Structure formats: structure tokens, C-alpha cells
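Take a look at the protein record below with the fold in mind.
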Amino acid sequence: MPEVDHIIEESKLRCGDNLLSVDKKNLSSDISERVFDSIVKSNKRFVKSGKKIIIRLQPVVNEFNVVFFLTDNQGRVLSINGEERLLAFCDEIGLRKGSVLKETHSGTQAVALSIRDESVFYTSGDDHYLNILKKVSFSAAPVFSVRKRLLGVAGAMWLTKKGNTALKGVVASAAMAIEDTLATSIMDQQLQDSLLYAFTIMNSLSFGMVAVNTGGEIEWINDTACNIFNVKRTLLLNQSIKNFFKDFENIRKITISKRIVLDEEVVFTIGNKRLKYSLNSYPIESQEGNMLGVILSFREMQRVINLINKYTGMQAYFTFDDIICESESMKSLKRYAKRIAASPTTILIQGDSGTGKEVFAQSIHNAGERREMGFVAINCGAISPN
């Protein structure tokens, strides 16, 4: 191939211009273990994917006595695997982890050409600039990231002066397989990251959220819902939501018709208690429009009421300390009101307009067990007799 021959000759000329000796005896490079480990770490995903492919290939090409290696985009050998006898030869010439197969260090050979031209090359015998490489052959193929950035090279070396086009094809296929493995690895990581973000967001919500399949079995549940049901997540997964929500079937029928349920007042059975919740329901659909399940979000009705009170000004501000009096009858009334504040009984307060009925009502509320709950003032005088 004239074009390849021309590329090889140009490479040799550059080696001569750089005063690289053809009699160089060793390919090793002075690099500390710490620096090398840092380089490998920065190429961790590439090395992991590459090793996975090379291990699969090794049994197939054992008959050729081949050494496989990976380099970064500067020609630094990151990993090397192969038959022991050939690895011993590699060690003799300094081809080991940390060695540099770039043109300026190791002369003309397939790895250097592959890095420079970002193409597949194989070289053998007299193609090589250094004499110590005259009795071996190299095949090398570039490996690119998903964004088409050169990550490094997948390479092979074997003891023969003659090239082997079959091995050239194997190395090229290995490079493509590494790229595919890398892409899959990145996609898997992105999916895991997305799930982590989603789970973190869902678990930070102050209301319960449950994903159930069409049969009503819990597929996922956030921390708030686990706390509401007072059951560990592992014990809730794959259990029926009907254990807590008896009316789920009605909600399911509405949602399956691809309608959204908003602010529906429902009752959950939790232990021996029946508690009211405000519930929203959303259908989960596949890309084809098939129903996969239902998302339920819910919060306690009392919390909804408290929020309404908080932002509409319906709060109890007065306490018994605000009722200042001198007459014995008012002091007696105040003492009586304090006693009944602890009672869950309904209290009727009567009196003329402006005598302080709401002050007493708020004071009783703030002294009772419901002090943290909402206070709703109703002016009975404004209610029509009819």
C-alpha cells in the first residue's frame, strides 16, 4: 500500500530529525508509581472496558502468541496481557505498563502511527525504526469516546517479521467493541445518576408518594410514605396498596381511563386508625400508550388545613395571659375555661357582640391539645337563620 508506505517513511524521517537512535535498547520510561496510578485512574472507564474485551479475545488468538495492550492518547501503556513467554520478551525490551509508544520515544510502529493519524495500522519487521522491533509485528486501532475524542489505542504485538491481516482485523474489531462497551457503561452510569437524582428528589418531598402497578402492587415508595404507613420500605415493596387504601380500586378505574385525580379526600387505614388524606393520582404510560401503573401522592388533611390557616390568617393568637381582668366573676370564668381547654368536648361560647368571645375561643384552643392544629373562626351571627 503506497500511501501507508509513505506514512511509514515520513515517520522514520521525523525520528531521524529528532535524533532518536535506531539502536535504542529499551522502551521503558521513567515514571513514578504514583504518577502512573494517577494516569490509570483518569482513564479508569477506558481501561476497565478495554480489559473486559481483551480477556474475551485472548483465548481466540492464543495460537498467534499475541500480547494485547492499551495505551492512552499519549501512547502510555496502561495495561498489557498475553502469553508468558512473549510477556518476558516484552519485559526485556521495556514494553511494560508505563512505557511510551509514541513516535518521539519508541520510533515508527503501529501505535505511534495510529495515535498520529487516528487510523488503524499494522507494522512489521523493517517498517519499524528501532532495531529491537525488527523481529516483531504490531497492530493498533484508535479508540474514541462517545464525543469522538481520542481516548487511546488498542494494540497487539507478536513475534514475527511478517504482518498478519487477520490480527489487524481482530484489533480493529476490539477497538470498536471497547467503544461500544464504553458507550453502554456511560449510558448505565447516566441512568444510575438519573435514578439517584429522582430518588433523592422524591425522598425529599414532604408528602407521601407511591408508584403501583396496574394490579395495585407497590413498585416504589418514598420515605415520607414509609413514615406515614410506619413500615420499612423493604416490607412494603410488592405489597398491595389495598392493605392501607381500601378504595384504591375506584381510583385505579378512574386513572386507567387516563384521567387525573386531584385533591380527592380519602381514608387510609393505618394500624387501628382511619386517617383522612388529600390524594392525587396520575397514570403511568409507556411510550406506546399502554398503562403501566399509577402514581399516588397524598398528604394528611390536617396538614392541608394547617397550611390553609397559615396562609389565610386563620391562626389563634390570643392566650389566657392576654385576658386581663379584675372582677371575681371574670377570674372564675378564666379558671373554668382553662380546665375545659384540655377536654375534647365541643364548647359553646355565648355573649353579646364585643364581649371577647373569640379571645376566649383562641385562648382555649392554644391551651388545648390541638394548639398545633388549625384554628377556624366561624361567626355564627353571620349565618342565616334559614
Notes: The longest strand covers residues 273-285. The mean pLDDT is 87.
